[in-house]
Design a protein that fits this description.
Strand order of the largest sheet: 5-4-1-6-7
CATH superfamily of the largest domain: HAD superfamily/HAD-like
Distance between the termini: 20 Å
CATH topology of the largest domain: Rossmann fold
Helix content: 40-55%
Shape: elongated
Number of domains: 2
Radius of gyration: 19 Å
Strand content: 5-15%
Oligomer: single chain
Order of helices and strands: EEHHHHEHEHEHHEHE
């Protein structure tokens, strides 16, 4: 598919996906957590690592009953993480109250890092007077994660699909995001690593670019800085 569509209207806002677009999960953190938990709880770090991977894999269908797609508030999210801790504790044969320390020391956002070019690109866009938004299929606490990776102060509008109640690639996710950015859809450039989300954004009226920072998709953008050439 083409990396970008090019309507004639001026781009006044760029709406980024978060994961694999401006940020990524640092898998090395899983090893750090396993070593920490082994020291804290006297467990084999390999057992801890396997339990962490198995527990997260169990969340792969977010639309399942009890999955995170149904979360609508940070209070809902807090209850979700409490259940998560209980399930992980069972995998490790530990009392749930002891595992609370692990989630305090290693919260979700500690696993995430910003891509090296991300901050410079967002700053450059805002310096041009372009509004910066982030729309991610994620938990309500998106602002916490953006702050943790050092990008919160260069994002004008942070939107979690859970808080919206609709998820990409549903059309309303894009239309409601445009409302929150206070811009017409045709004046927004949407950037995402998933082709289905890019297609849906175009169908909703946005300009849209496919990005693949792992360089595996022909025709996609392969450098976050290339976004600046589209604005």
């Amino acid at each position: 598919m083409q990396a970008v569509s090019r309507p004639a209207t001026r781009v006044r806002g760029v709406l980024f996906d978060r994961d694999e677009t401006i940020a990524y999960t640092d898998t090395g953190v899983y090893r750090e957590v396993a070593v920490w938990a082994a020291r804290e709880y006297g467990l084999d770090p390999r057992v801890v690592g396997q339990a962490l991977q198995a527990q997260w894999a169990a969340q792969e269908d977010p639309a399942q009953v009890g999955g995170w797609w149904g979360l609508r508030s940070e209070a809902d999210e807090a209850a979700y993480w409490e259940r998560y801790a209980q399930e992980l504790a069972a995998r490790l044969d530990l009392p749930a109250e002891r595992l609370g320390l692990l989630l305090q020391e290693w919260p979700y956002e500690r696993y995430m890092k910003a891509y090296p070019a991300a901050r410079g690109v967002l700053e450059a866009l805002r310096a041009r007077g372009v509004k910066v938004g982030v729309l991610s299929n994620t938990l309500p606490s998106i602002g916490v994660t953006l702050d943790a990776i050092g990008l919160g102060d260069v994002v004008d509008v942070a939107i979690a699909s859970c808080s919206l109640g609709v998820h990409k690639p549903e059309r309303d996710a894009y239309l409601r995001s445009a409302d929150l950015m206070e811009l017409p859809v045709q004046e927004i450039l949407f950037v995402d690593d998933k082709p289905e989300n890019v297609t849906a954004a175009r169908e909703a009226g946005m300009r849209a670019a496919l990005i693949d920072l792992r360089h595996g998709t022909p025709g996609a953008l392969h450098d976050l800085r290339d976004v600046l050439e589209l604005v």
